[in-house]
Amino acid sequence: MQKMFAECEPNALDCVLLVMPHADSDWAAYLDEAQDCVRNIAQAVAVDTDCVVVLPPHAQGAQNPLGALATHPRVHALFAPTNDTWARDFAPLCVQKGDSLALLKYRFNAWGEKFESALDNELAFALDAQGLWRCPLVPSERVLEGGSIEHNGAGTLLTTTSCLLHQKRNPHLSKARIEEWLCAELGAQQILWLTHGFLKGDDTDCHIDNLARFVDSKTIVYVHCEDKNDEHYESLQKMREELRAFRDCAGNPFALVALPFCEPLYYEGERLPASYANFLMLQNRILLPTFGSERDKEAQRILQQHTGREVVPIDCRVLLRQHGGLHCMSMQFVRGAIALHNLKRF
After folding, report:
1. Which of 148, 231, 314, 346 is least enclosed by beta carbons within 10 angstroms?
2. Which residues pair with 213 in a beta bridge?
3. 3-state secondary structure of 117
4. What is the DSSP letter of 146?
5. pTM for this one?
6. Among 3, 4, 5, 8, which Cα is nearest to 220's?
7. Is the pLDDT confidence value at 345 over 70?
8. What's the mean pLDDT in 190-217?
């Protein structure tokens, strides 16, 4: 049986992939801020983990978008064209089958054909041609985004009906067929479906990584709104009740830990999808998106208390302008999946 590596389990994490925003994307209006944010993420990752940053082809021989990180021994650059920067959703998923690794490359169609995505969908193959992957890249015509699923490493996969059952993703597949596929290819024993919970401004049709995350096989942290006047209140209350009813593969309830709900943030009159659940778990640390809010430190304290890991805050307000976050920007890989020795310095 194949088994997907869960972010929350000890898995010999080897590398994190990031994609640098560029001038030919929707980041152009505030490109410097967006690139600063990605450099901050890369620097935080590279404290103890290798980081591969995909740069646009025109960056070769030009001003280095990595800045001082270009000489960092754990930061590596590759060059490939992209539409956008959401590596979580178009990078391949690492699975183990027996003693072997494979990278499952699902089709990416920009969250149900909302945006142009041809270059993003081809990125994994472009990186394969440059020798990045050490294990087979297995293509699939099924649509699946990494941010839409959350695995606990012990047989449970958590997702949302509004995303995986969306008619512009896999319209020919029933819910039962999707469950069969996820169990067969990702090693899940059960699929738990959330039917409630959303974030205003989220383009993904309610990706789970903005709502609820496993921090270990038995614990789910989730966003919780206490303001009855907030438009999210009712839906997130119902989501919490669903989480309370869920059981693990042994029939036990999960431990639930509430994360604070960031007060409303806006850009050009649009409410932004700020979520403290959109964190990245590294081997011994957690990178937490922060938003210049008084609740930043509360989220940091809660995660540190319930994981025992150092929690590193990173200001990700600029990422919200394109409706994403820190976890959305990144994809982690386990040891043996990436051939770092093939990568050249900038």
Report:
1. 231
2. 221
3. coil
4. G
5. 0.97
6. 8
7. no
8. 98
